[in-house]
Write a structure and sequence with these properties.
The complex is a heterotrimer of chains A (301), B (358) and C (280). With 301 residues, chain A is mainly α. Helix content of chain A is 72%, strand content 0%. Chain A contains 12 helices and no strands. By secondary structure, chain B is α+β, with helices and mostly antiparallel strands. Chain B has 2 domains: 230 residues, P-loop containing nucleotide triphosphate hydrolases (Rossmann fold); 111 residues, OB fold (Dihydrolipoamide Acetyltransferase, E2P). In chain B, the strands form 4 sheets. Chain B has a 6-stranded mixed β-sheet, with helices on both faces. A 5-stranded antiparallel β-sheet of chain B has the order 13-12-11-14-20. The chains are: A mainly alpha (301), B alpha+beta (358), C mainly alpha (280).
Chain lengths: 301, 358, 280
């Protein structure tokens, strides 16, 4: 049996992790990174869909327009509301659900898949379904809310400029809660039981155990899932496009749906891309912030 | 059965040098114990021998063949891990058979080897169990069995007993030793526990800060330590270290501690110019009581007893001193007792370097 | 003693009450989907608010199955989601293993790259992808969809797999390598079986991710032969009218395989990560 020399072996050892990650990496670079670079390049050009004469380099013009675009700033404000309430409530309800499911109890194997089901439904269908439920002419929810005193009249919030965003947020929370429940449940189950037992012996009560064991153990998983989820939610216009089309009068427009509107209704791809690029920059800052918090937490462990 | 040669082996992790040029040869059939505090590089050295890490420099030879560039699987060595590293999804039999299956050994031979190892280790009744259904001691045995079935050139042990309770540890110590006597296989055993090193080793390799401090039989290290590190690390209760003065008197060396005469060594030693030395004496080499015609007095602080023996904590000229005795003495706190020191077992160390003065 | 048993009863009552609330909230919109799908068209809006329709019908299902290409879309969806789930899990397993077991230069940048690809609104990326796929002949093919879904699933799947691998002690592979296995063999024979619940969970995530995707499905593939069922749903919603009945019926049908899938993999979620069992 012959063996490569020391140098060759060392070279192989350096290459090994790349061999494992290369297929994923190549696929991502070819099918998403390259298109993203091209997509960003649109932001510096005058690209109009269906207009073959467009495409000239315009420098930072699109970004200058962006700064003066009140619709963009409004959409940005809505993006914060939309993302924060969606992710916040999804996380809160998901965490509670994960804690409820963490202990074995009779019927868990039935309940678990049921509460996870909303995650499996196409967003488009969720949007259509919730539009129906929220429409007082055909759906029950406004009437129930009215009966409970939550609304002064059984109206359609999707048509109310002040509350239109609430509709997609409700649908979004319903849809995304299981995601957090699943990931947090998996993380919860990996906490060694002895640690809880030791804490119990030390006299820690239920809340104290939650605060001093569960939270620190879950924190790294929480941060990563919250980060990814924030990015996804901020980027997904489907529910809003389906339920309100950003209306009435742009009142429920978020940046992602504004990009959609600009690209496919305004047909202004260059400008849409500039809007998208601005969103990416903001998300990048947010992600770096969370990652450095995570790094700091792992460091002090 | 094979010898292991290690020549000028270095290992760096980035800028940190973990092994600083190790030279060591382990004879065929020898049971060598690498001992030292955590972070001394003993486990790293073991992992280099196993091929789990690459050396930054130097040569590692197993059975006369340079193995630096061989992956672990081609080195024909077996290893027992601290965590046992049993395959959780395989039962005891499959755990032990795995290496033979990888070598495409015929099924009949595998059954024979696994059966033999199970019998040797008292695991026959457990062969169908999964690791999670075993106690710590049983898991430890399976890990041993996994090594034995291979009939490898050498056994490597990485702190294999540290996860067991004291009683189990004592028993496994004995069993591993017996196994070595029966199989006669070259073994390298890593531990931070000097009692394991003393009781198990043919030869102890004491390491500290990436450097070998001394190599020798347990009693050589115990009686004739090369420096303060070895003297202090080997033996329990540990050797007493006293700050003293040494002066050449005729053909001998006169030692004083706290200005009072301690003893006179009948040897000529190379002493430092200022005479400052550290005096080392093992607790059992100190006699206690007037009948020993001792000249130095100490004040009793506390007496610990195990029943079989006593450890007396005393104060000698302001320095703490431990005395080990099998005598059942009635000593009160604050009592003054005369001591006698066995001059033949006093070691002197250079106070600055910690090196032995010879 | 009495107090503790009373407080325990209260605790479990609250526990079940909370779970019941979750189940009710999770199921109600699903029930609505189902209710609309079995309500005849003539009373669909008239009894829109009623919890139970006065008449039920399977007409909408007959429409979906008999008078549309839904079965074709459905088949396409199964192929696309199934292959996507397997391919992304396979690639993510390899990458997650590398991230978990090797410290190597460039790891930080790869993770960063994967993250950035998740940040860009798809709307803008689709046009360049469409051009690239056009050149490669991948538009209007299921293969094209599979490739793009796999690429977008990999980052999260890799993160998942990495955390599953992190839970498995490194010594197991080392023991296997000393026993005579190559690293790859150790990965396949020792590590992979222990990560199985994690692998199944990852397959589940990727499957559901691809199952409901609509933007790529709509914009990359225009021919019915390569359309997936969310696009099929869209066909019931034209500019003026929405055919709710058949749309919801199709939606209910599409949910069935996912239901089956969830019930199958939930055992692994309960089982949790093997980490605890391995370390114990």
């Amino acid at each position: 049996m012959s063996h490569p020399g020391a140098a060759a072996r060392r070279r192989l050892a350096i290459l090994e992790p790349w061999l494992y990650s290369a297929p994923a990496l190549i696929l991502i670079i070819v099918t998403t990174l390259v298109p993203i670079v091209i997509g960003i390049s649109y932001a510096f050009r005058n690209v109009m869909l269906l207009d073959p004469t467009s495409g000239g380099f315009v420098g930072l013009d699109n970004f200058r327009d962006l700064m003066r675009d009140a619709s963009f700033w409004n959409a940005l404000k809505n993006t914060v509301t939309w993302t924060a309430s969606c992710v916040g409530f999804q996380f809160l309800f998901g965490l509670i659900l994960a804690l409820l499911l963490n202990r074995p109890f009779p019927g868990r194997s039935i309940i678990q898949p049921i509460v996870f089901l909303p995650w499996a439904i196409p967003t488009f269908l969720i949007g259509m379904n919730w539009s129906w439920l929220l429409n007082p002419a055909i759906g029950p929810l406004p009437h129930w809310a009215y009966a409970l005193g939550l609304m002064s009249a059984p109206t359609n919030i999707l048509a109310d400029p002040n509350y239109a965003l609430v509709g997609p947020i409700l649908a979004g929370i319903w849809w995304g809660t299981p995601f957090f429940a699943i990931t947090l449940l998996a993380a919860l189950q990996s906490i060694p039981r002895e640690i809880y037992e030791a804490a119990e012996i030390d006299g820690a009560g239920g809340f104290e155990r939650f605060r001093s064991i569960t939270i620190p153990f879950l924190a790294p998983t929480m941060l990563i899932t919250v980060m990814l989820r924030t990015i996804w939610v901020a980027n997904s216009p489907e529910l809003i496009v389906v339920m309100t089309k950003g209306g009435p009068a742009d009142s429920s427009q978020i940046v992602a749906s504004y990009v959609f509107t600009q690209a496919y209704q305004g047909l202004n791809f260059g400008y849409a891309s500039a809007v998208a690029t601005a969103l990416v920059v903001l998300l990048l800052v947010y992600a770096l912030l969370l990652l450095s918090i995570r790094q700091a937490m792992l460091g002090t462990r | 059965m094979a010898s292991i040669e290690i020549a000028n082996v270095r290992k760096d992790f980035g800028a940190v040098s973990v092994l600083k040029g190790i030279d060591l040869s382990i004879a065929s059939g020898e049971f060598a114990v690498l001992v030292g505090p955590s972070g001394c590089g003993k486990s790293t050295l073991l992992r280099l021998i196993a091929g789990l890490d690459d050396a930054s420099g130097g040569d590692i030879l197993i059975d006369g063949r340079r193995v630096n560039d061989l992956p672990p699987r081609d080195r024909d060595i077996a290893m027992v891990f601290q965590s046992y590293a049993l395959y959780p999804h395989m039962n005891v039999r499959d755990n032990m058979a795995y290496s033979l299956k990888l070598k495409r050994t015929p099924a009949a031979r595998i059954a024979e080897a696994v059966g033999g190892a199970a019998a040797k280790l008292g695991l026959e009744a457990l062969t169908e169990r999964k690791p999670r259904a075993l106690s710590g001691g049983q898991r430890q045995r399976v890990a041993m069995g996994r090594a034995i079935v291979r009939n490898p050139k050498a056994f490597l042990f990485d702190e294999p007993l540290s996860n067991l309770d004291a009683r189990m540890r004592e028993q496994m110590r004995f069993e591993i030793r017996k196994l070595h006597r029966d199989l006669g296989a070259t073994s390298v055993y890593v531990t931070h526990d000097q009692i394991e090193a003393m009781t198990m080793a043919d030869r102890i390799v004491a390491m500290n800060a990436g450097v070998i401090q001394q190599v020798g039989s347990p009693l050589e290290l115990y009686d004739d330590p090369a420096n303060m590190f070895v003297a202090g690390f080997i033996g329990s209760p540990a050797m007493n270290f006293l700050e003293g003065q040494a002066k050449r008197v005729g053909t001998g060396v006169k030692i004083t501690v706290g200005g009072k005469a301690f003893c006179t060594l009948p040897l000529a030693l190379a002493l430092p110019d200022d005479g400052h030395v550290t005096v080392g004496i093992r607790p059992e080499r100190i006699g206690i009581g007037a009948d020993r015609n001792g000249t130095t007095e100490a004040i009793i602080d506390l007496v610990e007893t195990t029943g079989a023996a006593n450890v007396v904590h005393a104060d000698l000229a302001g320095q703490p001193l431990k005395i080990f005795t099998t005598q059942r003495l009635q000593l009160a706190h604050g009592e003054r007792v005369p001591l006698a020191f066995d001059a033949g077992h006093v070691c002197l160390f250079d106070r600055a370097s910690g090196g032995r003065l010879r | 003693m009495r107090g503790t048993s009373l407080s325990r009863t209260i605790k479990w009552t609250l526990h079940y009450a909370a779970l019941l609330a979750y189940v009710a909230v999770a199921l109600f919109p699903l029930y609505w989907l189902f209710k609309v799908s079995i309500t005849p068209n003539d009373i669909l809006y008239k009894q829109g608010m009623a919890l139970l329709p006065s008449k039920v019908t399977l007409d909408h299902y007959a429409t979906v199955v008999g008078k549309s290409d839904f079965l074709l879309y459905f088949r396409n969806s199964i192929i696309v989601s199934g292959v996507t789930a397997l391919a992304s899990t396979l690639l993510a397993t390899a990458a997650g293993y590398a991230f978990s077991r090797f410290g190597f230069r460039g790891k930080f940048w790869i993770v960063g790259l994967m993250l950035v690809t998740q940040m860009f609104p798809l709307v803008i990326v689709i046009t360049p992808i469409f051009s690239i796929f056009g050149v490669l002949g991948l538009t209007n093919t299921l293969t094209g969809l599979i490739i793009i879904y796999t690429a977008f699933n990999i980052p999260f799947a890799t993160f998942l797999m990495q955390s599953f691998f992190d839970g498995i002690p490194k010594e197991l592979e080392e023991a296997a390598m000393i026993d005579g296995a190559t690293r790859f063999k150790a990965l396949v024979e020792i590590v992979a079986p222990l990560t199985l619940p994690g692998i199944v969970a990852t397959v589940g995530f990727c499957f559901t991710g691809a199952w409901g995707e609509i933007l790529f499905a709509l914009l990359l593939n225009s021919s019915p032969s390569a359309s997936t069922f969310p696009v099929g749903l869209l066909l019931y919603s034209t500019r003026g009218t929405v055919e709710y009945g058949p749309m919801m019926a199709a939606g209910v049908l599409a949910l069935l395989p996912v239901c089956v899938f969830f019930f199958l993999i939930q055992r692994y979620l309960v089982q949790g990560l093997t980490a605890g069992a391995v370390k114990g």
